[in-house]
Amino acid sequence: MLKNRQILGCSSGFVSHRWKPYSTTSGSLSFLSISTCSNPSLSYSFSSSSSTLLPTTTTTWLSSTHRPRFGAFSMSSAPSGSNPDGPSSSVAVQSAGNAHEINFCQSCGGPTKHEIPDGEEKIRAICTVCERIAYENPKMVVGCLIEHDNKVLLCKRKIQPSYGLWTLPAGYMEIGESAAEGAIRETWEEACAEVEVVSPFSQLDIPLIGQTYVIFLARLKTPHFSPGPESSECQLFALDEIPFDSLSFSSMVVTLKLYIEDVKAGKLNFHYGSINKRPGTSPSDIHAYTLEYHLQS
Amino acid sequence: MLKNRQILGCSSGFVSHRWKPYSTTSGSLSFLSISTCSNPSLSYSFSSSSSTLLPTTTTTWLSSTHRPRFGAFSMSSAPSGSNPDGPSSSVAVQSAGNAHEINFCQSCGGPTKHEIPDGEEKIRAICTVCERIAYENPKMVVGCLIEHDNKVLLCKRKIQPSYGLWTLPAGYMEIGESAAEGAIRETWEEACAEVEVVSPFSQLDIPLIGQTYVIFLARLKTPHFSPGPESSECQLFALDEIPFDSLSFSSMVVTLKLYIEDVKAGKLNFHYGSINKRPGTSPSDIHAYTLEYHLQS
């Protein structure tokens, strides 16, 4: 069964196409710019706005100073490289790709300019010495939804962002591993739990921050778990006891809601969707989102 | 139905766990290193080897000079930043993350050192001036498998790598867009086709080169398509006419084989899997792979 654009956890819609791939009237490419804001939040704030090329419309996220600039956003109140809506990989947290922070070439150390390369449509950081282009792409966060005795395993975060809030064990996928291997690794690191992945459950993109969550259904190989270095507690929760008011990220809210819906319906599906914050809401409000392109398989 | 570790398109197995998330004997983390080779191929070659931390075993990919070093590989015969087993994003091609090429900090321009940061287990490039850590993560390639009149749409590549070979329209996902939006955009760019995504069809990881392919089933909104700047031809193929000997990438072989199997079985599923080259085979042999962790939903 396929369901398009199901809205979860929200009462008002966001723009249904924040990023338009083409213009049907002109036949040429056009883009809808994405703007962020200068709004501090509990764990992070956006400090600049951005636009892609050939803007036709500007969508205001919150009140903001609009400066067409490369990169989706920067974060000012969290440590450099931190991550507004995602877990960490191991202990350190990573940036989703703040391309406007690319001032120098990683290869030769030359200063960069920010221009549209020949044959492309998007501003990139280009080395003024060796002409290397610095591409920034979304990062994948991989994790496990562990089913055990009709309960699911959650970890209480002992690190920022979202210190003290509950999450599925998850973290950034590394080069050299598959998503399944990364999810198994992160589960071991955060919950000291040895698991086997059973099936893919969800892929949830968060375009604003350049993250994609890939969550697998998994089961414990042995009935043992305990907090790893990044967790203060690990606990199995019955589905009607999941602490939705104390979850860490919108992606966890969506994943767990979809899971509960599937369990109630008696059939576990694979879910794809794109999570977008509702305009006018605080970035720290993990329940203020729309789920777009919701497709099931 | 779930199928674990189905092997497709190969007769011999590769290591089933190239990357071990933990050691059950010691209880501490251990890793299986990944080695690449100095073997030129048609469109690219690997020029160095790599290992992750705490190596317990070394898997030789082909004959190679083993130098423990951060990063999966480098490519020597293709232009800097090119991509051995993936399509391009727009015209320029991107690197999957050659971390050993990170010599300077993108933020302050300071020289980097390659060490294990405190609290982590993997060597990273760390700025010796501002101490910023340069994380490198897998890149997502998004595309569409377009069904039309019991045929699928393929594009003949007019760019390297895999010039002159056939591919599904696909390219690197950008920050600020969802995977579905990226797949729609790439289809427009490569095939001038206006499509609607119908359902997620596959996620195929290629750990060696740090890429993940996400392919959606899609349909033409209008029955029009024509080659974009990166394609020399676009053509609908009946399933028994797909040019498997002239496809561009292993990911396309796997996706199309799974699709044909599903069509024959009368049910389209979502497929997850990890594509690994068989040891002792040429990197340019797109049929020399194993599909691991094959899970369906």
TrEMBL record, chains A, B:
Nudix hydrolase domain residues: 137-260
InterPro entries, per database record: NUDIX_hydrolase-like_dom_sf (IPR015797), NUDIX_hydrolase_dom (IPR000086), Nudix_N (IPR029401)
Stretches that traverse the bilayer: none
Domain of life of the organism encoding this protein: Eukaryota
Compositional bias of kind Low complexity: 76-90
Pfam (any one): Zn_ribbon_Nudix
Region of interest (Disordered), ranges: 73-92
UniProt protein name: Nudix hydrolase domain-containing protein
Organism: Malus baccata (Siberian crab apple)
